[in-house]
Design goal:
53% helix; alpha+beta; two-stranded antiparallel ribbon; 9 helices
């Protein structure tokens, strides 16, 4: 992980923890902590607001050096449930996903706190990150998932989650994604 990413995570953890919201790191930065090697120049987190209003989060982020990258009044955040922000000190982009009940809460409940520099960062289990990557389904996500499996993510646990998700959604796309991952891992 780059020193810029460490600085972003340190400042972001302080801001979110001071606000009292629950959150976790996901995306490539989380995958790096769990065994992937692909580098990226952004940070992705999921935040669960609870009683905190979105406007309070936006205000706390701005005060912590994380201004929005979109106009606050254009409706983007309401439509997408994503807060695109930038870390002033490093200019690194950060995307904050506003978490919802369901699978995102499941990932939060299983996350572990990892130490990154001086910060304590809630991070999903490697298996949960693989499931996230399978749901995203882009080629680089498969490569991240492959790296996580090769680093020790448990395919049986991943398979169980994939089956539950596929049954809940009534579709086989994620099963197909898992089959593709298995093919890539055995190559």
């Amino acid at each position: 992980m780059s020193s810029d990413a460490e600085q972003v995570l340190t400042d972001l953890a302080r801001t979110l923890d001071d606000l009292g919201v629950r959150w976790y790191l996901f995306g490539v930065q989380a995958a790096l902590l769990r065994g992937s090697r692909r580098l990226t120049a952004d940070v992705d987190v999921t935040v669960f607001l609870g009683p905190t209003r979105t406007e309070q989060l936006v205000s706390a982020l701005a005060a912590g050096g994380f201004p929005l990258r979109v106009p606050a009044d254009d409706g983007f955040v309401a439509r997408t449930r994503v807060l695109p922000i930038t870390h002033d000190a490093t200019r690194m982009p950060v995307d904050i996903v506003l978490g919802a009940p369901g699978i995102e809460e499941h990932f939060l409940s299983r996350s572990e706190v990892l130490t990154v520099g001086a910060a304590r960062i809630p991070t999903p289990l490697a298996e949960d990150l693989v499931v996230m990557k399978l749901l995203a389904g882009r080629d680089h996500d498969f490569e991240d998932a492959k790296a996580l499996v090769k680093a020790g993510a448990d395919l049986d646990d991943i398979s169980s989650m994939v089956e539950a998700i596929a049954d809940g959604l009534g579709e086989d796309d994620i099963r197909d994604a898992l089959a593709e991952l298995r093919r890539r891992v055995t190559r």
